[in-house]
Amino acid sequence: MSLNLNKDLKQYYTISEVSAMFNVPNSLLRFWEKQFPTISPKKGGNNIRYYTKDDIEELRLIYDLVKVRNMKIAAARELIRRNREGAKNNSDLLSRLTNVRSQLMDIKQMLDAIV
């Protein structure tokens, strides 16, 4: 899965922008905020949430555990609590491997078109 995460462009992202990055509804992000205390977006006027790059990285890890690996919320929360670095490293590795696979598939399609 390829997430649209060009994290170096902005300092803060609205909940709508973040939900679009992960292709999930705003309500799921609000739910995850309640389930994972490590997600703490800043709240501005009219209670608008502003997510930092760190919040987005935390959401990426949670997304990987809950949506990609189909872990239950409690299990994901416990894994993050017990072994955050291990979970993050595994998530990063899976993301890189998925990206490499996608690139290889693109190369295969180009080669097939030549033949």
Explain what you see.
There is one protein chain. The protein is mostly helical and 115 residues long. It has a single domain (13-114), classed as Orthogonal Bundle (Multidrug-efflux Transporter Regulator, Chain: A, Domain 2). 66% of the residues lie in helices and 6% in strands. Strand 2 and strand 3 (49-51) form a beta hairpin. Helix 3 (53-68) packs across helix 4. It is globular, with a radius of gyration of 16 Å. 18% of the residues are buried.
What is the terminal-to-terminal distance? 28 Å
As a percent range, the share of strand residues is 5-15%
Q: What oligomeric state do the depicted chains represent?
A: single chain
Known CATH architecture: Orthogonal Bundle
Write down how many β-strands occur, each being a DSSP E stretch of 2 or more residues: 3
Round the mean pLDDT to the nearest integer and report it.
85
Question: What's the CATH topology name?
Answer: Multidrug-efflux Transporter Regulator, Chain: A, Domain 2
* Classification by helices and strands: mainly alpha
Supply the number of helical segments. 4
Percent of residues in helices: 55-70%
Low-confidence stretches: none
Radius of gyration: 16 Å
The level-1 CATH class: Mainly Alpha
The main sheet comes to: 3 strands, antiparallel
The total number of structural domains is 1
Strand order of the largest sheet: 1-3-2
What are the secondary-structure elements, in order, as H or E? EHHEEHH
Tertiary shape: globular
